[in-house]
């Protein structure tokens, strides 16, 4: 599961789920802290941003480099990030919060999973792009004027997106089945 650092993703029910924290969100968090700081207080977040950006460039090298050399670069970067996120006390509260939050996720293996497991994306950009039409539609239709409308829209959008991803060629038939209260069967 690729996600941001929202607290709900740390729920006990998700302990067994392998997560990849969105590097775009983490970089944005580091940039926000760095831009609000001057002098030495800026160093921690600036360095974190640089390391995470380096991590984003590594997957491109997977096909260019010999597997051993690629793995060596991944290991070295992982060690540098681990060292940077080591448990310690920072003088700046914002940097300390960033260290605690990102450090905990790194300790859980949620920051660089995409470098070790091919096919995992480093950001949740695709998921956010997939959600964008539903968010715009909800706003334009004003169906969220009350809690009931918001819940109905969420449920319908969830069903529609699930059908679209599991049986895209049979959306109409699947929608008819859903509206008739019949279960849909995903095509193999």
Please characterize this protein's 3D structure.
With 188 residues, the protein is mostly helical. The protein folds into 2 domains: 2-116, no CATH class; 125-179. 61% of the residues lie in helices and 2% in strands. It contains 8 helices and 2 strands; from the N terminus they run ββαααααααα. The chain has helices at residues 23-35, 43-61, 67-84, 93-107, 113-116, 125-141, 147-166, 171-179, and strands spanning 2-3, 20-21. The chain has a two-stranded parallel sheet. The longest helix is centred in the C-terminal third of the chain and has 20 residues, at 147-166. It starts with a strand and ends in a 9-residue tail after the last helix. The model has no long low-confidence stretch (mean pLDDT 85).
Radius of gyration: 21 Å
Classify the helix fraction into a percent range: 55-70%
Global mean pLDDT: 85
Largest sheet data: 2 strands, parallel
SS element count, helices: 8
- Low-confidence segments, ≥5 residues, pLDDT <50? none
N-to-C span: 22 Å
The geometry reads as globular
Order of helices and strands: EEHHHHHHHH
List the domain count as a whole number.
Answer: 2
Number of strands: 2
Structural class: mainly alpha
Which band does the percent of strand residues land in? under 5%
**How would you write the strand order of the largest sheet?**
1-2
